[in-house]
Amino acid sequence: MLLRVLGTAAGGGVPQWNCACPGCSGARRHPGWRRRHASLAVRAATGRWYIVNATPDIGDQIEDCPELSPGPGARQSPVAGLVLTDAELDHTLGLTRLREADGLQVVSTAPVRRALLTKLRLGDVLTPYTALEWRELGAGAEPLSAGSDVEIDAIPVSGKRPRYAADSAHDAAWVVALRLRDRATGASALYAPALADWPGSLQRAAAAADCVIVDGTFWDDEEPRRTGISERTATGMGHLPIDGPHGTAERLAGLPGRRLYTHLNNTNPLVDPAAPQHKLLAGMGIEVASDGMVIEL
Ligand code: MLT
Ligand code: MN
Ligand code: ZN
After folding, report:
1. Taking CA atoms, which of 45, 120, 233, 292 is between 20 and 30 Å from 65?
2. Ligand 1 centroid vs 89 CA: distance in angstroms?
3. DSSP H helices in the chain
4. What global pTM score does this model have?
């Protein structure tokens, strides 16, 4: 199984257009600090790729990834479809940027599809440009593409709704973790860029995966309040922190496979490549994903 990390930042990106925090300012001085919105490309078959989450950067992310270059036909793209882990704007707004496609296959859970259709009205907006084909993402593993060895299924993580859909019905599948499995080799990856919770089902899937890539939005629970970006804690904002007694680092440390963080907020000290927090994670065998990273399993 072949994965390509297309971006590793939380909503806003690094740098964020209206932000002069140390991380964003640093990214304006040092191009190496820059991170695009969190996204992952998965090869379903030769020349056939799915992009997990459609970020506001998706056009540039496709352009910068050699495997996703169009051709040989004039309007032929290896991008076969999109998979969504949730309905947050940083993971869905990119759908509008793909309106030049003849058709767009979107794989998501039912509450995510409903939010995009009834709240963002993406069906009404995009139908005059392209044909949206919805595929339901659920608990039963299905081939990513017809004939693909890569299977996908979803593990419900939390009922956290996007702010624009705050009045929508409760559903355990608003936010899911994706399990990708290569049937030919047995290799598997777990991708969970938004973790408001760590249910037992996720723990079991993480323990069985060869590679887990998870929510690294905030270093510690107080970070959003300390940096002045929110009055809520990280947990209150729907992101388990990395550090601390109930942090995700402790959970990752006990897992057997490769472990990486993604979806870093610009306030996260990890945005600075020289931050001591990198050594701390490395000591636990945990990596921080970088834009462009290739993961072969
Ligand atoms: C999140 O990850 O919590 C959301 O993307 C927040 C947001 O951008 O509003
Ligand atoms: Mn986000
Ligand atoms: Zn910032």
Report:
1. 120
2. 7
3. 22-29, 58-63, 89-92, 110-118, 122-126, 200-208, 223-226, 248-253, 276-283
4. 0.98
